[in-house]
User: What shape does this take?
Amino acid sequence: MEDMIPIPRLFGTSGIRGKIGNEITLKLITEVGMAAATYVGSKGHKIVIGYDTRTSNRMVENAITAGILQCGCDVIQLGMVPTPVVGYAAMKLKADLGIMITASHNPSPYNGIKLWNPTGMAYTQDQERTIEKIIHEKGFYKVSWEDIGKIKNNTSVIFDYINDLLSNIDIKGNLKVIVDCGNGAGSYISPMVLRKAGLEVITLNCQPDGFFPGRMPEPSEANLSELMKVVKATGADIGIAHDGDADRMIAVDDNGKIADFDKLLALVSSKIGGKVVTTVDASFCVDKCMEEEGGEVVRTKVGDVHVAEVIVETNASFGGEPSGTWIHPDFCMCPDGILSALKVIEIVEKNGPLSKLLDEIPSYPTVRDKIECENIQKTLIMEKVKEELPDRFEDVNDVNFIDGVRISMNDGSWVLIRPSGTESYIRITLESITMEKAREIRNISREFIEGIL
Assistant: This one.
């Protein structure tokens, strides 16, 4: 009977995340450290830890470190670093686990924990469920006082990461780049890498500050108006923006416009070639570009860990989400916004202005919307969407449930309804052959969901 009691879910689509003092408590943080150490085998094993610029990060680092040490594992502290450095360090230092303390694009009051395998790949859902089970059952391995783990510091691996990045690209250094790190974890390393690549670099919001005074950490168009203006005013070739932990990259073209997320993914995918993995919410333009290059597109659930898993399963050459979370498996299995920036810059340097390259990619009107709702309402909403929403459309060709509910129409239009794994929203993503049809699909979908609420 005890086995029938559901284990509380702590992990969303991108680790554990919530407001400090509410969902993220010191007790939970310590128990995550204990569970992680128990999972990797406790005594004699080592875990690397990094954090972004949030004001609560040293507190979280101390609490999770205490849990790890109590179970006999050693801790290697990296300090304030981007998420890709943690994934790289786990691989480079042959650690048993990497831990990144970050809430990524969420506002200052939030924080979170994401776990990384020795390969640099994020923990899978099965691994996360095992961590949850250990915490739920209090099945922690504890050691006596003489076997408590030790703490070491390692900052030299950061320079290994930088050198390996630069050896992975072919940039002559002829471009002017504006980089906006949003006061986040990439504030030191991203500009340094770009300068070492020989580029002319101007920085915005590259002073680490957990209050994010320059802009909110989400690199959305609404938050990047300053970057867009500076790119245009200075005649820069490209603008680069990162989120709070720099595992993502958003580009601004030479005209000072945000690069269309799907088109940018399609451009990079086509240049890399081979087999590319992307998510169910990515535009059909990715398929079109890959088709022209003789490549292949494989789709999976939303979330970088799902993309990573399918990259490994299919031996793909590249994988990414339209959000700018891209994985370069020939370097590391951790999403890397800094390497992604270098790859885009390399393409621009060799092939011409980003605006021109993106204009050559076919456009399909795309709409991304979200409806605020309580987390407790998500299950009911998705059940009704699954059962009733397809009947609201006249020309349905296919309905699948890879991730949420994706409804495809006969003319190629599609709409994806899925609950956010990190925030209190139901997300609506759709694409159509005309903007008029796109608005119609959006209105039908939104009115249906709002009718349930």
In short: The CA atoms of residues 85 and 351 lie 29 Å apart. The first helix runs from residue 26 to 40. The first strand starts at residue 16 and ends at 19.
